[in-house]
Design brief:
Radius of gyration: 38 Å
Number of helices: 16
CATH architecture of the largest domain: Beta Barrel
Structural class: alpha+beta
Distance between the termini: 56 Å
Shape: extended
Number of strands: 21
Oligomer: single chain
CATH class of the largest domain: Mainly Beta
Number of domains: 5
Length: about 625
């Protein structure tokens, strides 16, 4: 929170100008925090902003009177610049707003205010999105702590004015749009117990004075994950150093794979090409200058199913180095994290040595990216670079207990971890049974129970044909039911390294009748691969079919209607009497759907005058 966002205190507007100069130089910035200091010894009034202090006076007699009264009251205050006389030159006067308070407190020690799962969940609900505990802490600091680089931090409280250990009384901290209740716990820690929207009492006796507190106040993570993070890091440091440590094996595997990727790219080297042009089928044909380079590349690439080539004006630095001259992990890391922008990337599809050309099919979203001409063609490191960077970041965050689940490293190492107590959720519901089509097996029910009630991670394994896909669909439906009253969107991610696996599971998943949204698609597949688009077209076809069926029913009713109105009713004497409705069918007599093309008046028309039913 900034000083100009503070809504508390008694506000005064005052205009000041330099007492010993014509302008404020250096100038103060608009909305910058300022403070007024009255010197008893010199009688001066100093306006402080940033590292600057200027002797000021009121702009006119009225403003000088306001300054004199402030000096006499000698109350704590917070101020900020409202407007500046001239924005393109050092200003001659400033308008500032001052917030006065009856008292100000000081907390000399560092004050940590804990935020636990209850408050994290409350803020997630207020914001309507899922954010981490660290993001919640940042959100709270921005709204409750007046932070300025040139002045001490401030918070605003009502209630108990001290944070001493012998004070058990709760106090309220006021911020921008919200207020929080803070209570000292039995283990002598300050903890946020409630978050409410900021409101002032309607009656004066219901209001409590709000006072600023100057001190080093910060919010900290008091969730189970946050409290566990430090202990987990020290335990993981010891575990990772063991020879059989999973995280240590993971780290060594990353190193070996980096070496393998770079060795493979260096074996191919690069090929200089003089021309590149696009063929009618979308492939790019590169004319290679050196036939021997082309033959070597063809022998290496024809057996590789996933070989991707990259074209650029110059080959990357790591390929220009002689094999074996670069040693050490740092050199390998530098080569794979150089962050070179991809100019053109595609899959190798063929080559012809006599014709001195090599054909490359561009990859997906890069279809419109033309390669430079002339240039160099080499084994692409872009995909491997991103993949290894992500993997190494994941390994490091787990090993350092800096991931959202700090106990994950200990789980991977087989060490015991604390568990958060929570309500046990039932695995079955009517919607879940509908997904299975019949009563699920005992193992499927057990898989759902474990997945719904795990305190951290659940692993479900099964060979083909055991019903894993149905279990996934049922789990998503059950999760949606349990989170229906909260923010459902964006809570479940279904992922796989294969598009077909995701599409197979997503095709069977309907949460409240809606399909899953798939991100990304197979190379070469157009928008038809979008499951949501298929679901939309299926719904349109179903609605059209239902509308056509309804139109046919109404059409039949229209055929019967004229006979009901014109057919004479003959009594026993055989003489025609007045026309009445024959009870042809109860359905036709009671059916009068809205928005149909027929009305009761139209039922007596001839068939040739009937209009076709509209969808």
């Amino acid at each position: 929170m900034k000083a100009h966002e503070v809504p508390y205190g008694t506000c005064f507007l005052i205009e000041v100008c330099p007492a010993e100069a014509r302008t404020f130089d250096p100038p103060a910035l608009q909305k910058a925090e300022v403070s007024l200091v009255f010197s008893d010894s010199s009688g001066q009034t100093l306006l402080r902003y940033g590292d600057t202090a200027v002797n000021v006076t009121g702009r006119d007699k009225q403003q000088q009177t306001i300054l004199a009264r402030m000096r006499d009251r000698n109350l704590p205050r917070i101020g900020w610049v409202v407007s500046i006389a001239a924005k393109d030159a050092p200003p001659e006067w400033l308008q500032i707003q001052l917030h006065e308070f009856p008292v100000q407190y000081s907390w000399p020690d560092d004050i940590d205010v804990g935020v636990d799962e209850k408050i994290v969940d409350a803020i997630r609900k207020k914001l309507g999105k899922s954010i981490s505990a660290s993001e919640v802490i940042t959100w709270m600091a921005e709204r409750f702590i007046v932070a300025d680089q040139q002045s001490p931090h401030k918070v605003f409280i009502s209630g108990s004015p001290t944070a001493a250990s012998d004070q058990r009384q709760p106090f309220r901290m006021h911020g921008r749009g919200y207020a929080i209740d803070v209570q000292r716990t039995l283990d002598d820690r300050l903890l946020v117990t409630r978050l409410v929207e900021a409101r002032r009492g309607e009656f004066a006796q219901d209001r409590r004075p709000i006072s600023p507190v100057v001190g080093r106040v910060r919010f900290c993570d008091s969730t189970i994950a946050g409290a566990f993070r430090g202990a987990a890091r020290s335990q993981l440091d010891q575990l990772v150093e063991r020879a059989g440590s999973y995280l240590n094996v993971w780290r060594e595997y990353n190193k070996l794979e980096r070496e393998s990727v770079l060795r493979r790219a260096r074996a191919l080297g690069w090929m200089n090409y003089s021309d590149a042009h696009r063929l009618a089928d979308g492939r790019w044909r590169f004319t290679v200058s050196d036939v021997r380079q082309l033959e070597t590349a063809f022998n290496l690439l024809r057996g590789a199913d996933d070989a991707e080539l990259e074209a650029a004006s110059f080959p990357p630095k790591e390929l220009q180095e002689v094999s074996g001259t670069t040693t050490g992990d740092s050199a390998l890391a530098d080569s794979l994290t150089s962050g070179r922008p991809r100019t053109f990337v595609g899959s190798f599809v063929g080559a012809d040595a006599p014709g001195r050309y090599i054909d490359v099919q561009p990859s997906g979203e890069l279809d419109e990216h033309a390669p430079p001409s002339p240039g160099a063609l080499f084994m692409s490191l872009s995909g491997d670079r991103r993949r290894l960077e992500r993997r190494e970041r994941a390994q490091a965050s787990i090993a350092l207990a800096e991931c959202p689940m700090p106990q994950l490293g200990l789980l991977l190492e087989g060490s015991p971890v604390p568990e958060r107590r929570r309500k046990a959720e039932s695995p079955l519901s009517a919607a879940v049974r509908e997904i299975f089509g019949s009563e699920p097996t005992a193992r499927q029910v057990e898989a759902l129970r474990v997945a719904l009630n795990t305190p951290d991670i659940a692993l479900i394994q099964g060979p083909p044909g055991t019903g894993k896909t149905k279990t996934i669909a049922a789990l998503q439906v059950r999760l949606a039911e349990l989170t229906e009253e909260t923010d459902l969107a964006g809570q479940t991610l279904l992922t796989s390294y294969q598009h077909d696996a995701v599409e197979n599971a997503a095709a069977r998943t309907f949460v409240f009748g809606l399909p899953a949204l798939k991100i990304g698609r197979k190379h070469g597949r157009g928008e038809d691969g979008d499951g949501f688009d298929r679901w939309r077209r299926d719904r349109i076809d179903a609605i059209r079919a239902a509308a056509a069926k309804a139109a046919f029913v109404v059409f039949l009713l229209g055929i019967h209607a004229p006979f009901r109105h014109v057919m004479p009713h003959t009594q026993n004497s055989g003489h025609p009497q007045s026309t009445t409705d024959l009870p042809i069918s109860n359905t036709s007599k009671s059916f009068n759907p809205p928005n149909t093309v027929f009305s009761y008046a139209q039922r007596s028309t001839t068939l040739s005058s009937l209009e076709p039913c509209q969808e």
